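Protein in question passed on here:
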Amino acid sequence: MDQKVSYHISEYVRNPEIARQLVVFVILGGVCAAGCSYAAPAALSYVKFDVPKAVVLCYRFLPLLVWAAAGALHFAESYLRYRRLARLSAELDLRLHTEEIRLLAHMDEGELSILENEINKLLTRLGEQNRELKKDRQYLADSLTDLSHQLRTPLTSMNLIVSMLETGEADAEKQFAYFGRLRRLLGKVQWLIEVLLKLSKLDADAIRFERQECGLTSLTADALLTVEIPMELKGVAAVTDIAEDAVLRVDRKWTLEAVENIIKNCLEHTPEGGKILISGSRNALYTELVIADTGEGIAKEDLPHIFERFYKGKNSSDESVGIGLALAAAIVAKQGGVLQAKNRDEGGAEFVLRFYK
């Protein structure tokens, strides 16, 4: 909604700058009129013929008329300029008190147009910052909600277990089972807090990546070691096909964590007796690492959100938190890489990591 701007003559006259100009012009006009009235008869006395009265009047009042005309033009131009400034001020006030930041649509030339152009740049910048702040606030609110939900579940179970242990009614076997469950829940809470701290550091650019050359073969071998026992218990085999010249220049520690999280996700969705397929290659543009599983794949509606924090797809297990892939994507992105997820034609999910040279 545009605001109608009115700038009356009374406001114009009350302007201190205009008031000073009026005083100066009146004084100059009085001096000019007095000087012309005094000098004109003396000058015309030297003329040897009779001068018409009209000419005498012109000599007396012509400078005064010129002064008046120049003054009128000056004040008219000043009035239009101040009216334009008043409109500009009113539009700025309107933009500052509304949610919407709109530009001032004026394409004239001159200093005021340059000023409006600079104000347009400022409004655009403020609008972008306003939108970013809203997104950040919403993201913070959503993150706190998700975090409280993720912590509330294990903490509730832990409180329940502690209450049952306090009663002293459980026998030794049940107590052992309770302590085992309590240990797993504590481990889950500790892991969640550590991952969130890492993500916070990544968001704040507080991590300095120590880049070094590392082969994909050794990187994936170390990542598989962390899931060796769960894979053995589940009967899942790892099939690797990595080129010998496939080398990355990345921070090995952080990249290893990203690969571990992807492999753990694949293991979670791989049925008993399934496989995790890992391949690596290198070309003139990038080095690529592909990690796939033989599970049910990623639901179509989950694909656009698979790397969002705390997002759990329809095929996720109850133990899943939905943060491992988000951490992996953040680590890869911070090192200039790209992480993509898709479904294999043969079935199962596939994650593609590419690090460009």
